[in-house]
Design a protein that fits this description.
- There is one protein chain.
- By secondary structure, the chain is mainly alpha-helical.
- 66% of the residues lie in helices and 4% in strands.
- Among the domains are: 114 residues, Ribosomal Protein S5, domain 2 (2-Layer Sandwich); 73 residues.
- The strands form 2 sheets. It has a 3-stranded parallel β-sheet, with helices on both faces.
- Strand 2 and strand 3 form a beta hairpin.
- Helix 20 packs antiparallel against helix 21.
- The chain is globular and about 65 Å long.
- It starts with 24 loop residues before the first helix and ends with a helix.
């Protein structure tokens, strides 16, 4: 599709020929962006990358042949965007041509390169000067953030755009600023468990519909759990009066789950599990497989960390009911698979007996999730790799353990040309690598390695780490062991 990369047939030496197939995914995405932004794409630009059903970029086959075809048949093209994994082959094929090969790893990065950072800034700035358009965009940012992590595959441009709007839209009212600040910080949390969210004012909350305000507070609770902001005591004072366990509405169930996850990392995992089980029971009774997947994942993790067989059994029963009646949504299925497999591995590590068939099933599940590069989010894949390492280590599989550790270390220290300094991929790999080295330090009794791993984990996951450190102290438990048990992802 490179002759039509800008949504119309290119001129100046490009033949009137259409090429389709998976390689055109990114070109089509850029064409759609061109229509949405009402901005033409450069005629000298082409794109060769797939876009998966999970809205991620993917490498394509026969990249060298396609690069040579562009050079021969689309002489107007000077720049070709390719997936990072295709970079070396594409550069080799383009050596004797005038083509510049530029690697991209996310749709957001591709869009920025295609239209230019200045163009994106000017488009957003112009929109902010029109009151109706500004209000429409503020609501869009806010509602996107309210939908949760799976609303988009790449939160980096959302974080950047909301931040730009906050700094450049001079006529924002207090409510608009609250919504944009919320969107920016939620995007930072989804990207890398970051963000500095402030506590919402009573006036701000009262301006929202009750159900929207309750869901908003669920995000505040999750933000506190992952990033450490707003302060824990203030968040609990704000959300606890809204926790209703008798006939809760959907928004309150989401709040129960968020508070349960917050309590699980702040020293009250037993109370957190109680709330998660309540939410899981209610969502299961309402036959909502999508919403049930969130508390069910948390139940598997917390119950395994606490060694509560009865809670694990109840969680399995809810999952079996949902699978038999309504099924689990495709979006929630890999998260549940991971949580369930990790719980089984955690049980075997603590000496709790599980059947050999269950352990083998967990191992195969983790291997599958860890290799789904184009179909699973990075944080999920690298978490699966971390638990797969735990399983190999427990089995005494030295060769597999060493090979997997090298793979995670290489991804954590990715220095390929064009690789971003802090992509979600690299961030997730660094966290997995820190947890793997922490386990290695525990297994070998190496206090230096253990401390270095804890320091690195705190650098990347400061909010979660500080919660776990305080909780370990409150409960009188050794920090490294506590982190390995209760790290929530």
């Amino acid at each position: 599709m490179f002759p039509i990369v800008n949504g119309r047939r290119a001129k100046e030496g490009c033949r009137d020929e259409q090429i389709d197939g998976p390689s055109c995914g990114l070109a089509l995405l850029l064409g759609l962006a061109s229509a949405v932004f009402r901005q033409p794409l450069p005629a000298e630009l082409a794109a060769l990358a797939g876009v998966t059903v999970h809205r991620k970029l993917a490498p394509v086959g026969e990249i060298a042949r396609k690069i040579k075809a562009i050079a021969a048949r689309a002489r107007c093209v000077r720049t070709v965007l390719v997936h990072q994994d295709n970079l070396e082959q594409a550069q080799a094929a383009a050596r004797s041509t005038p083509l510049a090969i530029v690697p991209v790893d996310t749709p957001g990065r591709a869009i920025t390169l295609a239209f230019g950072q200045g163009t994106m800034h000017s488009l957003l700035g112009a929109a902010g000067r029109e009151p109706a358009r500004r209000q429409e965009l503020v609501e869009s940012f806010f509602m996107l953030a309210m939908r949760g992590r799976q609303a988009t595959v790449d939160w980096t441009p959302i974080e950047a755009a909301a931040g730009l709007a906050l700094s450049s839209w001079t006529e924002l009212g207090p409510t608009e600023r609250e919504k944009l600040d919320f969107a920016r910080n939620v995007a930072a949390r989804h990207r890398a468990n970051k963000g500095l969210l402030t506590l919402p004012s009573v006036q701000w909350l009262s301006s929202l519909q009750r159900s929207v305000a309750t869901e908003y507070l669920a995000h505040v609770g999750q933000q506190c759990a992952d990033s450490g902001t707003p302060p824990l005591a203030d968040v609990l004072d704000l959300v606890r009066p809204r926790i209703v366990t008798d006939d809760p509405d959907p928004a309150t169930l989401k709040l129960l789950g968020a508070v349960g996850r917050l309590l699980a990392v702040t020293g009250e995992p037993e109370q957190g599990l109680e709330l998660e089980l309540k939410a899981a029971r209610e969502w299961t009774a309402r036959r909502d497989g999508q919403e049930a997947s969130y508390p069910l994942c948390a139940c598997f993790r917390i119950a395994a960390a606490l060694g509560l067989a009865a809670a694990l059994q109840e969680t399995e029963q809810h999952l079996a009911t949902l699978r038999a009646v309504v099924g689990i949504s495709p979006a929630g299925r890999p998260y549940l698979d991971l949580a369930r497999a990790a719980a089984r591995i955690a049980c075997s590590l603590d000496g709790r007996l599980i059947e050999g068939a269950e352990q083998q099933e967990a191992l195969l599940c983790l291997q599958r999730l860890a290799t789904l590069a184009d179909r699973c989010p990075p944080h999920l894949r690298w978490s699966a790799a971390r638990w797969l390492f735990e399983a190999f280590l427990a089995q005494g599989a030295a060769e597999q353990t060493a090979a997997l550790a090298r793979q995670v270390e290489e991804a954590a220290q990715d220095r390929r040309p064009g690789a971003p300094d802090d992509s979600e991929e690299q961030h997730s790999a660094r966290v997995a690598w820190a947890l793997i080295r922490l386990r290695q330090g525990q297994a070998t009794g190496n206090p230096v390695q253990r401390q270095q791993a804890l320091d690195d984990l705190r650098h990347d996951e400061e909010g979660i780490f500080d919660h776990l450190q305080a909780a370990a102290g409150q409960r009188g438990e050794e920090l490294a062991s506590y982190v390995l048990r209760f790290y929530p992802y």
